[in-house]
From TrEMBL:
Source organism of this protein record: Ancylomarina euxinus
Protein origin, superkingdom: Bacteria
GO MF annotations in UniProt: oxidoreductase activity, acting on the aldehyde or oxo group of donors, iron-sulfur protein as acceptor; thiamine pyrophosphate binding
Keyword Oxidoreductase tagged: yes
Keywords: Oxidoreductase
Any GO BP annotation: cellular respiration
Name the UniProt record assigns to this protein: 2-oxoacid:ferredoxin oxidoreductase subunit beta
Listed cofactors: [4Fe-4S] cluster
Residue ranges of every copy of the Thiamine pyrophosphate enzyme TPP-binding domain listed in the record: 60-207
Keyword Translocase: no
Pfam families per UniProt: TPP_enzyme_C
Amino acid sequence: MADTVLNSPNIKKLSAKDFRSDQENRWCPGCGDHGILNSVQKALADMEIKKEDYAVISGIGCSSRFPYYMDTYGFHTIHGRAAAIASGVKCANPDLEVIQVSGDGDALAIGGNHFIHAVRRNIDMTILLFNNEIYGLTKGQYSPTSNQGMVTKTSPFGTIEEPFKPAQLALGAQSKFYARSIDTSIKLTTEVVKSASAHKGTSIVEILQNCVIYNDGTHALVTDKATKDDYQLILEQDKPMIFGIEKNKGLILGGNGKLIVVTIGEHGITEADVLVHDAHTENPHMHWLLSSMMAPEYPVALGVIRDVASPSYDEKMVQQIKDVQALSSIKNMDDLLNSGDTWVVE
């Protein structure tokens, strides 16, 4: 998180409008990216960081037009390399609040190697992963998160590949912060982005996003008004994991180590039996189980799933430089160039 905060009474508080650029928005009408953009602009206004201290970095894809629509510093980079460039931005200027925006194809296919190593290094930046389970910009090819059997232009008989579950990939790379939201919930996405920014280290926010053209309704059970209450589990720290249209369903841990959906009031189950969420526990087992739940067998876990404190790469890098400088006669580039034998050419 950027250290420069708007704490002076003489500085005008920013609003979401202050982060809207003058660029024409070219996303399709009805695209989930519109809602995500609104959420992020609201979050940035609430975080009270100087506007000039934000840097929005993207790769290639529909989601990666994001920097054009943000009135901040930004960089629309190359396919799959957003994490690498965002890492460089943060290490070159650790005071910046760096936000990387990528789609499931950009981040997990060509950019998969950069993604896992950014997570492993725990560089202090926020990765917004738009997951619509399709390649949209290139007109509808299956992506690393497309469901097995999905028929697309590149899988006319149905894809035979097992899809990535982004949370499992991140947790396997030792992720310290993982959250999930949906494009239709401005409020939840705004709060999750703020939580991600407050976390020191690589914060991943997976956003289930709808592509109205090539994969419309892929998250329908989780987002449709008629079903969403039964398929959304919105996690809150130290609160029981209760969901359902009547708020009478919950999760317990079975003897086989699997999560079980129960109904409060049936078979002697009470609210006291329901699991309580703890995003801060270091053991990732429960976070793995929660992030792996899929509809219709389970509700989909939303909100902050994992949030564990750990020193960030850039913090350790800055401290290491200071430690080395303290023991060396050479403190900077000028000292290096003027050390040893030098000559003056006249």
